[in-house]
């Protein structure tokens, strides 16, 4: 298709320099799996970093082979003529440290033992991901990003970029995100982790050596998470109370279409995602709170930033509700930063940031058109 970046090939970047993580743990070396789209201009000013959410990865757009049934997870947003236009921008997707799609993570070999890291892999925070992304930018010769963009957990990374490296980012696009998790969100994450931790096949995180996968725990964690990503209205419109056979079966097997859908999503996820990575990603969500080191003041934290901001929320997103985005906007205004805000009407819940709702796409296109004009 003319608006696709086409066939893309990921690259593994090896970093031999040790990194000291926020927890104090040290990784002597690490690898990041990266994909890029478009061309870096002569002065390297047109780079955009895409930060992924909990279950995301580096494959953001295009196809790995001609036989792929589905493109990258944000293909609707990235490509020639799309809102993140690869005719104008050089776009970078990175699988975060601790991930399970090629970057160093719990399933990688620990050089100290010759076995998978497993339970020995350290907890990573959003600030650790930003540090590794900055090191990648250094290797690419990119001194300043035109924009850092992310939804959900990716939006938290964009916020952290603006605070930690204010000189290295001109725009931060924070979509369907929050300045920190609510108590309810932390509770959801803990229930999901408990599903994994209590799976008999988990083996304390060292299930690799046993040749098993804590599939049941991963499946339950994903089913729970998936419910929170959708809106009540959206689920009702798609599934209602539809029965698979049209009649009650008076048992505990799948009867309602929503049950079938959730079990399918859980099974699919358990086949491709690493249980330890799921634990790490949810913990990074729990710990994110940039105001913590500024006396609890988000406005004070955002005073460090020099970027301009676009903050986007969705009306039916109850996991990262619009009120949370408005907290970010207020803090930015209190800090005298430049911010645009859009609250999009959508039936898709938290997943709306991945969808092609026209008002959302139009907002993104308009904002990024202005970012592109700065390159001229």
Task: Write a concise synopsis of the structure shown.
It is found in: Cytoplasm. By secondary structure, the chain is of the alpha/beta class.
Task: Summarize the structure in words.
By secondary structure, the protein is an alpha/beta fold. The protein has 2 domains: 11-180 and 289-374, 3-Layer(aba) Sandwich (Rossmann fold); 185-283, Rna Polymerase Sigma Factor, Chain: A. It is 34% helix and 14% strand. The protein is built from 10 helices and 12 strands. It has helices spanning 126-140, 153-164, 183-197, 215-229, 232-238, 257-272, 275-287, 298-302, 322-334, 358-373; strands at 11-15, 19-20, 26-27, 30-37, 47-51, 78-79, 84-85, 90-94, 147-151, 171-175, 308-314, 339-344. The strands form 3 sheets. An 8-stranded mixed beta sheet has the order 1-4-8-5-9-10-11-12, sandwiched between helices. Strands 2-3 form a two-stranded antiparallel ribbon. Helix 2 (153-164) links the parallel strand 9 (147-151) and strand 10. Helix 1 packs across helix 2. The longest helix is centred in the C-terminal third of the chain and has 16 residues, at 257-272. It is globular and about 65 Å long. The model has no long low-confidence stretch (mean pLDDT 96). The active site is at 152 (nucleophile), 317, 350. Residues 46-353 form the AB hydrolase-1 domain. Homodimer.
